[in-house]
Each structure stands twice: as C-alpha cells, then as structure tokens.
Amino acid sequence: MLLSVIIPCFDEEAAAARFETELFQALEALGVPFEVIAVDDGSYDGTGGVLRNLAGERRNFKAKAHEYNRGLGQALRTGFASASGDWIATLDADLTFHPSQLRLLLDRQRETGADMVCGSPFLDPAGTAQVPWWRRLPSLAVNGLYRRLCGPALTAYTPIFRLYRAEALRSLRLESTGFEINAEIAARFLAAGLRVAEVPAVLTVRREGSSKLSPLRELWRHFRLGVRLSRSSQS
Ligand SMILES: Nc1nc2c(ncn2[C@@H]2O[C@H](COP(=O)(O)OP(=O)(O)O)[C@@H](O)[C@H]2O)c(=O)[nH]1
Ligand SMILES: [Mg+2]
Predict the structure, then answer these.
(1) Is 93 a pocket residue for ligand 1 (Cβ < 6 Å)?
(2) Which distant-in-sequence residues (6+ apart) come within 8 Å of 97 by Cβ?
(3) Ligand 2: centre distance to CA 211 (Å)
(4) Ion ligand 2 neighbours, Cβ < 5 Å
(5) 190/116 Cα distance (integer angstroms)
(6) Residue 41 CB–ligand 1 contact under 6 Å
(7) What is the distance in A from the centroid of ligand 2 to the CA of 226?
(8) Is the CB–ligand 1 distance for residue 12 below 6 Å?
(9) Could you tell me if 58 and 83 are in contact, meaning their C-beta atoms sit under 8 angstroms apart?
(10) Helix H or strand E encompassing 230
C-alpha cells in the first residue's frame, strides 16, 4: 500500500512551516508508506518557497504549483492527478483535522472495506466543541441539506478530511472548482454505488493565518452543485 496525502495550500506560509515537524511526525507514526503532495494554488505569500524547500529535503514530499489561484477544487484535482498511491487522503493545510487522526480513517477502512471513509466532526459532540457557533451552525445546515439531497449515509458531506480508494476516485468525473468539491465527491461516490463509511473526527481551530472560506461565494457554489446533483439524480 502507498498512501498519497494531498494538501491544497493557498497563502499558508505559516501553516506550511509546521509540515516539516508536525505533519511528518504524525504521518511516520501511521506506519504505512506515504507521499505528500502539496498544491500551492497561486499563493501571494511565501507558501511556494516553503513547499519547494521541503520538496528539496524530503523524497516523499512533492510540491505542485498553479501559476494563479484556481480554487480548492482545482487544487485537489491537480493533487489527485499527481498521486501515485493506491489510497489517497485529503487534508487541510492548517492541520485542523490533525493528521494523527488518519489512523482512524485507515482503521475504519480496514473494518468496512469501504472505498471512501469520511472523518466526520458531526458524529460526536467533541468533534466540533472547539469550533465557534457561527462556523458550526452554517456548516451543520449545509450538511443537513446534502443529507436530504444525497441520503443519510453520511453526516459529513463538506469536510475535506477523507480517505479514498484511488481507483474509485479516478473513476469519477468531477467538475467543482471551489470548496464544494468535497460534497461533489461524496455525492458521486454514493451515486456510483461505491462503498462509503464514516468515523468521528475532531476539528480544531486554525492556529495561524486566516480562513480562505468566503461564505457567500461558497454558499452560491453549494447551491449550484445542489441543482446539478438533483438534475443528475432525476435523469
Ligand atoms: N489550493 C487551494 N487551496 C485553498 C484555496 N482556498 C483554500 N484552500 C485551502 O483549503 C483548506 C481549507 O481552507 P481554510 O481557509 O482552512 O477554510 P476553513 O477551514 O473552512 O476556514 C486550506 O488548506 C487552504 O489553504 C484555494 O483557492 N486553493
Ligand atoms: Mg481550515
């Protein structure tokens, strides 16, 4: 087994400085062969330099770059295309789903044989205990809508913290360019009849830098994806 860990990065210079220590320590403790693919999505700060330095030092760290900002969805798709692992995990650059929790995803996959395992902060009250209400409530509402649209198999349609069977992920035709890509992937896995599973995961708050989420823009993108998904389920 080879695990490819994809990390989209947009203006994450301070967070990326923690990869060398915190990220690698957590990944090495998993005890599985891994590679990290960080995608610098046209950052304006020093993210590109930090990632390139790391790529020079570590053989299992690849730095990919977009010339200009193309969005989280495009960054993940660039990462998927460069991954050589038979399993792919996706992670936030701010490590707010701590990479040590990948153990939970790997264990649940082994127990269930699933093609996709989602880390859900909504399965257990501890999962979002550190998240302020003004982030938690909109997120619960959006995930509730996806449950109505795509089914109750999952509680976490929007979070990035996942493990995918690479072959299954590559079989999907993905269109999303923004944060809604995680919901699109989950919906496509379900629609294709692939096996999905969830495990409780803890979401913490960012230690450095600022959130790149623009609430109105993302709400609009979720709305458009919802329309696309309901059309494709009718046809
Ligand atoms: N590549 C890329 N990554 C992005 C973009 N916007 C956000 N991200 C990354 O996606 C992850 C989630 O973004 P974040 O700002 O932490 O959103 P939040 O956790 O919802 O507040 C982080 O790793 C960001 O660096 C983007 O436009 N392109
Ligand atoms: Mg974040």
Answers:
(1) yes
(2) 91, 119, 121, 159, 160, 161, 201, 202, 203, 204
(3) 6
(4) 92, 94, 96
(5) 10
(6) yes
(7) 23
(8) yes
(9) no
(10) helix 215-234
Per the structure block, which two tokens stand in for 29? 């403790």
Percent of the chain residues past pLDDT 70, beyond the cut: 100
- Residue 15 corresponds to which tokens in the numbers above? 């967070």
Whole-angstrom CA distances from 197 to 20, 163, 193, 231 are 30, 10, 12, 25
Nearest Cα residue to atom 2 of ligand 1: 72
Q: How far is the CA of 59 from the centre of ligand 1 (A)?
A: 25
pLDDT digits (tens, 9 = 90+) for 57-88: 999 999 999 999 999 999 999 999 999 999 99
Q: Which helix (H) or strand (E) holds 165?
A: strand 162-165
Q: What predicted TM-score, i.e. pTM, was given to this entire model?
A: 0.95
Dihedrals phi, psi of 180, to nearest 5 degrees: -70, -5
Instruction: Kindly list the structural domains of the chain, giving each domain's residue range(s) and its CATH number in brackets, ordered by start.
Output: 3-234 (3.90.550.10)
- Determine whether the shortest distance from the Cβ of 92 to ligand 1 is under 6 A: yes
